[in-house]
Amino acid sequence: MSAAWLKDAVFYEIYPQSFYDTNGDGIGDLNGIVEKLDYIRSLGCSALWINPCFDSPFKDAGYDVRDYKKVAPRYGCNNDLYRLFGEAHRRGMRVILDLVPGHTSEEHPWFLASQRAEPNEYSGRYIWSDFIFRKTGQLNYVAGESERDGVYVLNFFKCQPALNYGFLRPDESWQTAMDDPDALATREAMKDVMRFWLDHGCDGFRVDMAASLVKLDDEEKSGSSAVWRDIRAMLDREYPEAVLVAEWARPRLSLRAGFDADFCLNDPWTGYPSLMRDYDLDHPEKPDNSYFRRDGDGDIRRFLEPYMAEYESTKELGFISLVTCNHDTVRPAWNLDTRERKLAFAFLFTMPGVPFLYYGDEIGMRYRRLPTKEGGYRRTGSRTPMQWDEGPNLGFSAGCADSLYLPVDPAPDAPTVAAQEGDPDSLLNTVRALLALRKEREELRENANLSILHAEKGEAFVYARGGLLLAVNPGAREAAAPVAAGDRRVLYAIGGGRAEGERIVLEPQSFVVWG
Ligand code: NOJ
Known about the structure:
Layout: E1 11-14, H1 30-35, H2 37-43, E2 47-50, E3 54-55, E4 67-71, H3 78-90, E5 94-99, H4 109-114, E6 141-142, E7 152-153, H5 181-199, E8 204-207, H6 222-238, E9 243-246, H7 251-254, E10 261-263, H8 273-276, H9 301-314, E11 319-321, H10 338-348, E12 356-358, H11 417-421, H12 427-440, E13 450-454, E14 461-465, E15 468-473, E16 479-481, E17 490-494, E18 497-500, E19 503-506, E20 510-514
Parallel strand pairs: 1-2, 1-12, 2-5, 5-8, 8-9, 9-10, 10-11
Antiparallel strand pairs: 3-4, 6-7, 13-14, 14-15, 15-20, 16-19, 17-20, 18-19
Helix pairs in contact: 10-12
The structure holds 1-deoxynojirimycin.
């Protein structure tokens, strides 16, 4: 059973480097997040997910942790994070941290000890072979870097050696079983990290690469799932209010493994890319068939088919999280104009599950092609500083422009919070109105039922949440659907629509809620 607070939570994802800098060093900090809590709450968000803010050499923006229990000095100190938890709680908000359980930085003291030739407590904390001049089969590895006579396995980038949780079916002498003391010690070490932050007031974790723990796992990820069930049992006993959100994108597996929610991400099997990102970033000449493009050849069924299969089989178990974007994904302003994004967000925020808003998407921050920063590569363009007002550095920092973590959007019409505050029709205020509607109506809550009433290409798409009828027409022409609205009245609309007896008709680029 998930913590009660999750049932009406809306998350705001913060990339701490780029949110708000209070000490003028050009990089965001934890005190900056505290200062902006009221703003975040004003959007209708009730919880934060903060990307890794721990000590790190930042070869992968902090997903290469060097000390799990220490805030990176550039963001402040542990006490600043404890204060953030307290200030959030005082406002009825929650904070989840990013847990990176599958790997550490190559500079983590556990790894430095593990690299030594002399056997020690950490020799089995990572996955090492007992040979140097052979390959490790399907696993990526690094050879020739260590005093130790063996190669080590990677979880992602070269800077991220894989922690050892064992192999599902070890078949070589160097592969340990899941119940090997070394594999169990890794698991206990990760529980210890979780207890540390939960004891200081954190409300749970977004879990990085959650399915990656056990190596040579089967299709169903039974190995990693078993580890998570054990961790969940610890949380249920000791921290029943703690929430786990998986980066896994397989709700059928992750929710059964004890996660409360799982992201619907850019992996093609989720159907999610067809909504807003059905284009090829490297080939702009190819058509963009995203559903929310006014002129695209999109089809909502490409999303609904995989989504509904997951939703129907997991709705009693937990939540699917739809996101506007995240720090790994191209921002929706890349290919969708403001109206298209309003419609996309209207859809995302009226679906079941726990939604996530990526910082800056509420004002339409742009994706920019930028040189890589901290292992971001093409992701860097979605990680630029938040645009607060028209002041220096768009209000992000009082530091000099060339000291900024990344440059702010130089466009003369770069969107800002200040410019959109007073305009009732702005994207910012549309996001607020949508989240207010979601909060007001029980039918739009995380676990309230969803049913699809009409989904045909080129026609209005109609779905029901409890007794509410919701319809979307992202196209440039009027569109209808054979669904009767009965005596319901319009509760909320972007654009417009009308009920005509046995059908409803939507104006071009419209979204309407009848209730
Ligand atoms: C997923 C994270 O979202 C991404 O930013 C990171 O690079 C990898 N996991 C590795 O930790």
